Amino acid sequence: MNIKQTLIDFVKYMGTWKFWKELVIMTLGMAVTAAAVYYFLVPSKLIIGTISGLSIVLVNIFGGNLGNWIMGINIVLLILAFLLINKEFGAKTVYTALILGPLTNFWDAVFPWQNIANPNPVTGTPSVMGDPWLDLCCFVLLLSASQALMFSINASTGGLDILAKIVNKYLHFDIGTSVSIAGAVICCTAFFINPFRMVIIGLIGTWINGLVVDYFTASLNNHKRLCIVSKDYERIRQYIIGTLHRGCTLYEVTGGYSGEKSIELEVLLNKDEFSKILAWMKEEKIDAFSTAGNVSEVYGFWASGKRRKQMQEQIAKR
């Protein structure tokens, strides 16, 4: 696709609800990320395995502005996003990477951390929460929630997520593990400015961050795989296709005890659809044996609005 056509498609995309919704999500997410970095990492020099953490190390060694360091490193990593991941992820990350540094400076101008930080009673190091472990907990919760929200729209909070996505794509680790691997390397740079104790706290925080990202990601993207064995499978199939506008798969199964042949339906549903079909089956008094399991990631056409619209149009023509 040439540059002209790409620009035309982008202009059209800017006129859609999806574009503005995702723009708001990314902006709010990055504002939370910037606040987490500025208020919980900068005062105590707590280095978590993030690009912001690496930038704090560089500021303490070479000086300069934290926001500028964050932006510079992210620009380099953005090139990797375009080359190694995909254009959609890279394009969205351009925006988030460019505003993270300025948003960090924004919090500094609006409400400096010096206004609320107090010296740690043991080490004397400034800390907003008064203890590096509490700073760590607050930072990880805010950052992990922001990262999971970004991943849900195929975007990123910045450079570390790019590295994590690369590890996820080529080594097939889950996102949380990928964040931990990329972050652990960055954590080790804290030896240049922090005592051993603070480095260990940073490493533990990076590991916890990976676990929390997995939790938030699974919660945001959680779907249900529902398997139903019933003699009324045709009514259930019609309800799934005609009312829920979802596809389903039918299998012929044989009962291990009775030896009778039956049909099993398998369908992937979101939480609302899952509740609806269970309520409908109860209301219609359908005799069925059902099992359900959680699915955290779905690929292909399942979540495509275009795909569902096509299904609805095909049903309407029947």
List strands and helices in order, with pairings.
Elements: H1 3-14, H2 17-40, H3 51-62, H4 66-84, H5 87-110, E1 118-119, E2 126-127, H6 132-152, H7 159-171, H8 175-187, H9 196-220, E3 223-230, H10 233-242, E4 249-254, E5 261-269, H11 271-283, E6 288-295, H12 305-317
Antiparallel strand pairs: 1-2, 3-5, 3-6, 4-5
How would you describe what is shown here?
The chain has 318 residues and is of the alpha+beta class. The chain folds into two domains: 218 residues, no CATH class; 95 residues, Alpha-Beta Plaits. Helix content is 63%, strand content 11%. The strands form two sheets. The chain has a four-stranded antiparallel beta sheet with strand order 4-5-3-6. Strands 1-2 form a two-stranded antiparallel ribbon. Helix 2 runs antiparallel to helix 6, helix 3 packs across helix 4 and helix 4 packs parallel to helix 7. The chain is elongated, with a radius of gyration of 24 Å. The two termini are 37 Å apart.
